[in-house]
Task: structure prediction
Amino acid sequence: VAADRMNAWRPVVATAVAVGGLVLLAAFVLRERVAESPLIRLDLFHDTTFVVVTLMGLVANIAFVVTIFATTIHLQQVRGYSPFVAGLAVLAASISGGVAGPFAGRLSQRVAVHRLIAAATLVGAAGLVVVAFGGEIGPYLLGLAVAGFGYRTGLTLTNLGTQAMVPAERAGEASGTTLSILSAGSGVAIAAAGTLIEQGDLATGIMRVLLGVAVSSAVATMLLVRIP
Result:
C-alpha cells in the first residue's frame, strides 16, 4: 500500500505505513518461531540453496510481471493501440512463457537449477532491453517474446528446484512458501513500478522502469548465483 500510494500520501504517512508493515512481518516471524503448529516452518530458510533459488525466482517473477504491466500501458497510452490489440501483443510474452514449462523441466535434469535460473534471467533481461528502447513493433514483439521466455523459465525452474531440494513430505510446504514470497514481492514491485511510471513523461517513465528492471534483474541474479 505504501509503495502504491507514495505519490498521493504525505511522505510521513507513507513511511509510517511501510514501517507498520515491516513491524507486522517481524511479529509474524517471531510468532512462527514459537508456534506449536506454524504456518511456515522457518527451518526451511536454514538451507542456503533454498533461499538463493527462491530469491532468484523472486527476481525473475518481479521482472516478468513488471514487464507485462508496463508494456500494456505503453502499447495503449504511448503507441495508441486498443486494449484488445495491446492484449494480443502481450501474448508474445505469455505464449513464449508457456513454452518455458516443459523446456525448463527437461533441462533441470541435466544442469544445476540455480545456474539455469541465472542463464534464463539474463536471456529475459536481454529481451527486455530491446523492449525498453521501443522501436518498430516487430523487434518490440520479439523482445517481449524473449523476455517472457527467459523470465518465465526462471520462475518455472524455481518451482521445480525448491520442491526437489526438500524431503518429499515437505514439497507442498516448500512450494507454498516460495509462491507466497514470489506473489508478495511481485505485488509490491507492481505498485512501485506504477508510482515510478507516473513521475514525469509517460513514455520516458516506462522506458526507465523497463531498463531498470532489466539491469537490476541481471545484476541481482549474477550476485545470487555466486553464493555457495
